[in-house]
Amino acid sequence: MKHRRNKIRSYQHFVWTTYNRLPLVTSEIERPVYRYIETVCRPVNCDVLAIGGMPDHVHLLVGFPATITFAQLMNRAKGGSSRFVCDELLPDEWFAWRENYAVFSVSPHDKAKTIAYIRNQREHHQNNTLWFAVENFDDETEDE
Questions:
Q1: 14 bridge partner residues
Q2: In the chain, what are the domains?
Q3: Beta-strand (E) ranges in the chain?
């Protein structure tokens, strides 16, 4: 008898900001912070497809499993990375993420476009080719 498995293909684009959008993710800590976030995603079966951002925010695209909630992943990514920065990278400095975050479902059809957007954050900000709803989620007063 064949065992059937659930087929779940869910891609989620998370975005969160630093406290008061301060430029806290400096070039010195950016790579270690991103690597840390990737590391905490692995054990919960969140396949990191892209991670990137600017000094005041992070974008994360993951293949999202049915075994964890958005809040659980953000607790691991934001809480863990904040402790990592404060304990390991910059023990004498202050660092914090803003409490809220946004998450957007991404269709398989739009996955490559979203990966490119995340990987090219600097260019999009420089050329003002931003995805407004994603970049300014914390400024919105109502759902779109």
A1: 60, 103
A2: 11-139 (3.30.70.1290)
A3: 11-17, 47-54, 57-63, 102-106
pTM for the full predicted model: 0.88
Q: Tens-digit pLDDT profile for the chain (144 aa)?
A: 677 777 778 999 999 999 999 999 999 999 999 999 999 999 999 999 999 999 999 999 999 999 999 999 999 999 999 999 999 999 999 999 999 999 999 999 999 999 999 998 888 777 777 677 787 776 644 444
CA distance linking residue 76 with residue 37, whole number of Å: 8
Distance CA 69, CA 23 (A): 28
At 29, list the tokens: 């800590």
As beta bridge partners, residue 105 has 12
Distance, CA of 105 to CA of 103 (rounded, Å) = 7
Rounded Cα distance, 88 and 85, in Å: 6
